[in-house]
Amino acid sequence: MIQGQHLLGMEGLSADTIYSILDTSKSFKQVSKRTIKKVPSLRGRTILNVFYEASTRTRVSFELAAKRLSADGVNIAASGSSTAKGESLLDMAQTLDAMQADAVVIRHGQSGAPHYLADRINARVINAGDGQHEHPTQALLDIFTIREHFANLEGLEVAIVGDIRHSRVARSNLIAMRTLGMNVRVAGPTTLVPAEFEKAYDCTRVASVEEAMEGAQVVMALRLQKERMVSGLLPSLGEYADFYGINKTMMGLMADDGILMHPGPVNRGVELSPDVVNSKRSVILQQVENGVAIRCAVLFLLLGGETP
Amino acid sequence: MNQILFKGVRVIDPVHQLDGDFDVLLKGEKIAAVEPVGKLKPTGEVKVLDGVGKWLTTPFVDLHTTIACPSESYKEDLHSVQDVAVAGGFGTILLIPSKEMPMDTPEIIHYIRERADAYGKCSVLPVAGLTHGLLGERLSELGLLQAAGAVGVSNGPVPVKNTQLLRNAFEYGTDFGLPFILESMDAYLGEHGDMHEGAMSTTLGLRGLPRTGEDVATARNIFLAELTGARLHLVISSMAAAECVAKGQARGVDISAHTSAHHLLMTDKALVTYDTNLKLRPPLREAEDRIALAEALKQDILTGIASHHHPQCSIEKDCTFGVAGFGSLGLQTCFAEALEASKLRQINPMKLLEKLTVGPAEVIGLELPGLTVGAPANVVMLDPGSEWRLNSETNRSKSENSAVWNRSLRGRVDFTVLDGKIAYEADIQA
Asked: Does the global pTM surpass 0.90?
């Protein structure tokens, strides 16, 4: 369904496409449980992971996915100096093209960088996070995880909490969740949850984290992106933790079958208190596990490999 | 003596509010005759141009072109900018200072005027930098800059943070009768912005330039003009800023304003592809702003439409949006863009051409002679129905960063005649 295309964002993906990626991921999750965790689907294909920003989870996850599909994967840790203008990215695009890559997985600090690359190279481009724009494979693995707990996604009550303004994870999830008919509430300090989100994503902004969590079946906490904050958006981390952090008592507000998610890495004691991170409701490690299956499915579908 | 006859052309002269079909004869450097169609029988060698279906008007005046010479003459220089201007139907352009060319010393003003006049295709008028290096710290020598040939003062794209300094500038500069041409943007609201702040910037994950930044600064500048009696001209892109201007005018403050043809034609929705050629300052805003701007033109709250011609090279534009430079080409496509936009609020041709000629001219006190017998032979022939594209074949600029690059445009400049000389002639295929 998405063969021969790029995956630049969740924007524009239909519910059918999302479900087909999720269904394909299911078979790849099975592969991960085997003793020999490898299928020959993408044998002989070249996948380059180009990361302009530091990443452990996403990079390793893509790397493992390529290996499980028997593709040849190479990691490139590029230095992403934004002062060097775009020359470096243009050079990178030409270099990648010359290497005859089949797919390029890119993470970049600038919103729109994968689109820039997609216009200039022959390979399929997969967005592994661009600036404050999108992180589609994260949203897909999040939805996959949610689906493991709730058979029917339509009408599900979701709360996204925290630094939404700077979060590409929130944006990709908002698009995907609305496409799939889930109801999303967002909460956090107004400096981090601008009013435009309601209009842009058809979600509901509520006044407090408690109100967002009330009866929610899925609670997604976001990492407080300290490094991205221009001074003055928050007075202190301590105050943030007090008013917007999620603790054990607040977990009681959720629906009985509610789950707690976080894209990681968690700032323990800031957005989540340490005891909730490893609580029964936390599915944070499942998210990581499912990341590999999702990335297998995306690579497989984009490059048109054979059935696993 | 050179003779050019425009036969059966629709003369639209905003200077004399004349609109009708005529034969117009240019002889040497003067307009020799404006007569009913078929009456003129000139003798001697005459270049005859079929004017049926075309408009003849006075050459345009641009209030806002930004180039940096000689430091960045690879993007545009004082000669190439004139080639672009006449291809866009302009006879006069104002150069606005920038960080790269702050135009803050009499020597640079001299240099610009001399270099430009030496080429002499059209009139290039420098607007001096309000503060040294546009840093907003020390007032430039406004009197000496004016004596050297500056026609106004501006701090270019850099907001003047210090309101007291701006007040001083208004008071001091007004003694010399200089108009202040200001882009209004608060120094802090949207300091790092890339595009209009709204739903679109939110979904694209780009940093916003909020309307409020423009509105707050516009209001401040108008109140200061009211206090000091300064002659103020503002660059406007938001609905509320246009309202501020209207209210100021109603109170009798000496203010005028313009917007660019890009802002009349496009909105932030166009940025969905991260096209860096649409990265403008002020930014493209929303549909309601666009409509309000067109309405403000119709109601004469805005006095002009400017090109906002700002060439950038590929290093500035062939990159991701966040690091790309601001600006688009504009001179060559200004008429076509404005013509298309004029349909939004049914702005008639006379009004449209007013906003490209007498409106902008008034800002700097320039008197246009218009299309009358004995006046200098300055005319532009326009073909409002002709379709064309700005592409590497038609482009006259040294740069290619046009917001409407390769887009189908309707409304072409066919001839630009300045002081009896054909400054530009479109390559029309028969």
From this structure: yes
